[in-house]
TrEMBL record:
GO terms for molecular function: magnesium ion binding; xylose isomerase activity. Keywords: Carbohydrate metabolism, Cytoplasm, Isomerase, Magnesium, Metal-binding, Xylose metabolism. Its EC number is 5.3.1.5. Its cofactor is Mg(2+). GO terms for cellular component: cytoplasm. The keyword Endoplasmic reticulum does not apply. It is found in: Cytoplasm. This is Xylose isomerase.
């Protein structure tokens, strides 16, 4: 490896389920065929730049625990960070990576200088992407870490902050397009409020709607072929987030006429914080036509905040990928590991082991979901439960040919007296467990 940060490790091999090697895949075989498609093409794994190479290991009660040779605010260190990142991408064999602008270049004193630094790193990325074949799943702008964004970006009461954020997004979209990114994500980390005492909610929502409309317009002007994604983000860091969950985002998109232009990037941890299951958010996004991509991680269910741990719960992954497959699978989207090491996991190989375990977990979930689909394990009982709606009289209640009056007459004339039927939930839960 070019940097030697990970020692002598070259490429993580696939050794099968009986392997005890922590630096080998047991279930993720990129070339295994699943439902007629390579596993790599189903899962479309991406490694995120921020948690893997930027996060210092802090938590709400303590600061940095990680010491990395690329930590610092110079372009030389930014290039060193890129060297290590691509070493890891290649070792894992992932097809994609993702980044925020602030992850890959040091912040400068002016917008112009920060933009120029981003473009310089993009040139460096392009060389590495050409050499390795690794692609960009999506780019995004960090509109939340700097103190200028303490009251939001698009929703900020200061129009100069709105302008600075808009210019930043433009520069990041330009780089994303130049690098062949397949999506562009808007992650509204501070688009919300702490108290209504100093907030005009209607004004802020209109600002956010205008901001997103300008992003969509710019996408079309520059001919960007990728998908614009919004990531649902509840509760943290602000008390009330405007992009709380999939349902909230859909209502927002409908209000501003963007429901056919923007899709969602759904994170497992955020779904839990919103009081939902991951599969609920995936299923709802698919039903509303706004499913795009996923950020894969998990939360500690005993903590009330976003712990961003690597996935290790196969039944959860099976239900998640079942919804992805039912939605037709990914198009431009993929599985991005928005997950970070625990602050005590200090060693370089911990970064590899965490991703290996997460990739294996997702692979097992995908294969279980695929078997359920092949066997019609859930589709059969589901079809049976709704079979009554296939009858002509039932269809006529939904197609507009019947009114409340005519329905009432039918109930009276036919002496309809429906009796409850079991939903068989326990049977279905046990059925799922057979596959995982």
């Amino acid at each position: 490896m070019s940097t030697g940060f990970f020692g002598a490790i070259d490429k993580i091999p696939f050794e099968g389920k009986d392997s005890t090697n922590p630096l080998a895949f047991r279930f993720y075989d990129p070339n295994e065929m699943v439902l007629g498609k390579r596993m790599e093409d189903h899962l479309r794994f991406a490694v995120c730049y921020w948690h893997s190479f930027v996060w210092p290991g802090g938590d709400p009660f303590g600061g940095q625990t990680f010491e990395r040779p690329w930590f610092g605010d110079t372009m030389e260190l930014a290039r060193k960070k890129a060297d290590v990142a691509f070493d890891m991408f290649e070792a894992l064999g992932v097809p994609y990576f993702t980044f925020h602008d602030a992850d890959v270049r040091p912040e400068a004193d002016t917008f112009t200088e920060s933009r120029d630094r981003l473009n310089a790193i993009a040139d460096y990325f392009q060389e590495k992407m050409d050499a390795s074949g690794i692609k960009l799943l999506w780019g995004t702008a960090n509109l939340f870490s700097h103190r200028r964004y303490m009251a939001g970006a698009a929703t900020n009461p200061d129009p100069d902050v709105f302008a600075y954020a808009a210019a930043t997004v433009k520069s990041c979209m330009d780089v994303t397009q130049r690098l062949g990114g397949e999506n562009y994500v808007l992650w509204g980390g501070r688009e919300g409020y702490e108290t209504l005492l100093n907030t005009d909610m209607g004004r802020e929502l209109d600002q956010m709607g205008r901001f997103l409309s300008m992003v969509v317009d710019y996408k079309h002007r520059i001919g960007f072929k990728g998908t614009i994604l919004i990531e649902p983000k509840p509760q943290e860091p602000t008390k009330h987030q405007y992009d709380y969950d999939v349902g909230t985002i859909y209502g927002f998109l409908k209000r501003y006429g963007l429901e056919n232009e923007v899709k969602t990037n759904i994170e497992q941890g955020h779904a839990i914080l919103a009081g939902h299951s991951f599969e609920h958010e995936l299923s709802l996004a698919a039903a509303l036509g706004i499913f795009g991509s996923i950020d894969m991680n998990r939360n500690d269910y005993q903590s009330g905040w976003d712990t961003d741990q690597f996935p290790n719960n196969v039944p959860e992954m099976a239900l998640a990928y079942l919804e992805v497959l039912k939605a037709g699978g990914f198009t431009t989207g993929g599985t991005n590991f928005d997950a970070k090491l625990r602050r005590q996991s200090l060693d370089p190989e911990d970064l590899l082991i965490a991703h290996i375990g997460g990739m294996d977990c997702c692979a097992r979930g995908l294969k279980a979901a695929a078997r359920m689909i092949e066997d019609k394990a859930l589709a059969g009982p589901l079809s049976e439960r709704y079979a009554g709606w296939d009858k002509p009289q039932a269809k006529s209640m939904l197609d507009g040919s019947m009114t409340l009056e005519s329905i009432e007459k039918r109930v009276i004339d036919e002496k309809i007296d429906p009796q409850p039927r079991s939903g068989r939930q326990e049977y279905l839960e046990n059925l799922v467990n057979r596959y995982v």
